[in-house]
Amino acid sequence: MFNGENFGVIGGPNTKRGLVIIPAYNEQEALPGTLADLRALAPEFDVVIIDDGSSDDTVSAALRSGAVCIKLPFNLGIGGALRTGFRYAVDNGYTRALQFDADGQHDASQIHALMDALDAGANMVVGSRFAGVGDYRVSRSRRIAMRLLRWSIRRLAGQKFTDTSSGFRAFDAPVLHLFANDYPIEYMDSVEALVMACRAGFDVREVPVTMHERAGGQASNSHLRLSYHYLRLLVSLASTPRRKPTRKPADAAGTIPS
């Protein structure tokens, strides 16, 4: 079970329609605007901020918003922060949750497009930056890396995606249970999680979304780091045996594994 005393949980869940999980590391500049947009455009959702060992005033910014804040004792990386958020969601009875960035790139008005896809039977929904909406741009090196990832995921997961690394995602209860226990904590966790969900037999879909530039803070970009983790990811995924589906996709919605 989730032990709030171990993680510095401040506040408590209201169990509204769903939960927005926001991993945050040194996001004091962007977080207030992000939370204000969520309050204005998606007020029916609870929000939990996972402060990933920030050295700035991220926690204070979260508390001023009235959101629940979980302060990790040190930096785990985004994968570890997200697994904490998924565990919080499961242990507090949420049957749906969204992954949302703290930096202002995601558009709170489009949360409902992801939720509509869950209503239509999806278990996991990815908001795609490259599915024909908006003009989100990336550098040439990242564009090449993304192409390689798309090709790799298609081979490994047996499904085509236009955006394998989007951090704007929605999940139903069975996927939350899977990720609360097994969400990957290494860099490029979003790509590995996509393959994990597909191999587990879940219905994973994309919906087109627009995204914005960062509202503050600094992104972590290192070509050497990206290359290293891309190779690590391919080796890890290629060597991992494919799981047998634990459910038929048509029966997955609303089914919570024991």
TrEMBL record:
InterPro entries registered for this protein in UniProt: Glyco_trans_2-like, Nucleotide-diphossugar_trans
Span of domain Glycosyltransferase 2-like: 20-172
Annotated Pfam families: Glycos_transf_2 (PF00535)
BP GO annotations: protein N-linked glycosylation
PANTHER family: DOLICHYL-PHOSPHATE BETA-GLUCOSYLTRANSFERASE, GLYCOSYL TRANSFERASE
Full protein name: Unannotated protein
Lineage, uppermost ranks: unclassified sequences, metagenomes, ecological metagenomes
